[in-house]
Amino acid sequence: MSAPAQLVLRARAGIAERLALSAATAEGAHTATSEVPGWLDRHRQSGGTVVRRIPFAELDHWSFAPDTGNLRHSSGRFFTIEGLHVVRPEADWQQPIIVQPEIGILGILAKEFDGVLHFLMQAKMEPGNPNLVQLSPTVQATRSNYTKAHGGTAVKYLEHFLAPQRDQVLTDVLQSEHGAWFYRKRNRNMIVEVDGDVPVDDAFCWLTLGQILKLLRLDNVVNMDARTVLASAPALRAEPKALSSDPDLLAWFTGERARHDVRARRMPLRAINGWQTGEHSISRVDGRFFRVVAVSVEGAGREVGGWTQPIIEPVQPGIVGFAYRVFGGVPHVLAHARVEGGFLDTVELAPTVQCVPSNYAHLPAEDRPLFLDAMLNASPDRIRYSTVHSEEGGRFLNAESRYLIVETDETTTPTQPPPGYHWVTPGQLNWLAGHSRYVNVQARTLLAVLSTAIGGRGAL
Fold first, then answer.
1. Any residues with CB less than 8 A from the CB of 3 and at least 6 apart, and which?
2. Where are any strands of DSSP class E within 399-443?
3. With CB atoms counted within 10 Å of each terminal CB, which end of the chain scores lower, N or C?
4. Which residues form the dTDP-4-dehydro-6-deoxy-alpha-D-glucopyranose 2,3-dehydratase domain (predicted)?
5. Long-range CB contacts (< 8 A, 24+ apart) of 452-456?
């Protein structure tokens, strides 16, 4: 006779409270916050990494397929650069896109010291980072990397994330990445708690969430992968009310997904229109948006010491910003149901503004992205957060954006926003970020800092 089934609570108590305590702890038990930038600098200098641009002909183990022109690795692993054709009722376009179907792991180890959760962060070199070394998750690896397709060494601490005990997992969710540059890319975002001793070498350090939040105020210190993992974790939100109920918000978002007719299909890279392939780059004829280039990486101090690879480089820095208002004493941000050709679903919730302004400089004001001027022309006393962050440095070269949270008013961001936009609370955004394909990677970066950026503001 089998034992009776054992029921458990649907929600594990205390996770959000423990994370909130860590966020409120400004200094940790191991490393002072002020020491982290210098620690990253030391790893940058001691690594001796050299990243240089090379012509496509100098790529090692990469080549253009003779039939499609797709740029691929000889192993068949890692990723490919292919063409994408996106068709919408009002427009269509073709572009290069990164195709990387395997799901990687972005994992942060957590451990209590003196009753407070600390997180094991890594000083990690990525060739596309403007300053090479940034604060990264404990594990940041594609399946090709952690199965050693490159023939390199093992990924440290990987074992904690491959088969963790269920009661050790604080957060675990598949999240999308940049839909403008990746085709349906997802990574597993995880925070896993450990009890026993964890050997820590010089490239890793324990920090509280409060320390990481401080570091998120500094330009190009906390990398994209760390930001998205932290944003996916549950947060305490004292928001009994909002402009929209949670069911109404979901109904609006489902309606946005349903009303957008987006058809995206992969196509041969050599056949895309409006792009030209040269010795050193694949770029648009008009020079806008981004280009595909090749780099050589030497002295990497990674699982392998050096390699070559193709990489996407945007033409100019971007602006990513949330408009912020308070309604009835409750903070809200203006989210945009944004279409990107590489999304698995038609739209995801994005910041109010997400663009490279120079791409639209030639257009009249009415054809530029909505609310862009509210970000570009915001007075300093209305800017709640302003920091430069780079995107994922393994696939994108010098992809920097200024991330903003700007307090606005009825004249610039009305209570009844235009179609495709919706006011949401930080708590609602955090709730949605706990699920796959709701909140895009740029919005998750801003979500990671929302509570500290807008906390304590008065009602409008």
1. none
2. 400-407, 421-424
3. N
4. 34-232, 248-450
5. 452/23, 452/213, 453/384, 453/385, 453/405, 454/324, 454/331, 454/384, 454/405, 454/407, 454/426
Query: Which amino acid, residue 358?
Result: S
* pLDDT tens string 191-230: 999 998 899 989 999 999 999 999 999 999 999 999 999 9
Question: Which alpha helices (H) appear in 78-189, and where do they start and end?
Answer: 143-146, 159-162
Q: Give the Cα separation of 314 and 396 in Å (integer).
A: 8
Pairwise CA distance, residues 122 & 156, whole Å = 10
Q: Determine contact, residues 359/316, Cβ cutoff 8 Å.
A: yes
- Domains of the chain in start order, with CATH, are 246-263+316-454 (3.90.79.40)
- Stretches where the chain sits below pLDDT 50 are 150, 456-460
Tokens of 418: 């235009």
What lies within 8 Å, CB to CB, of 286 at 6+ separation is 274
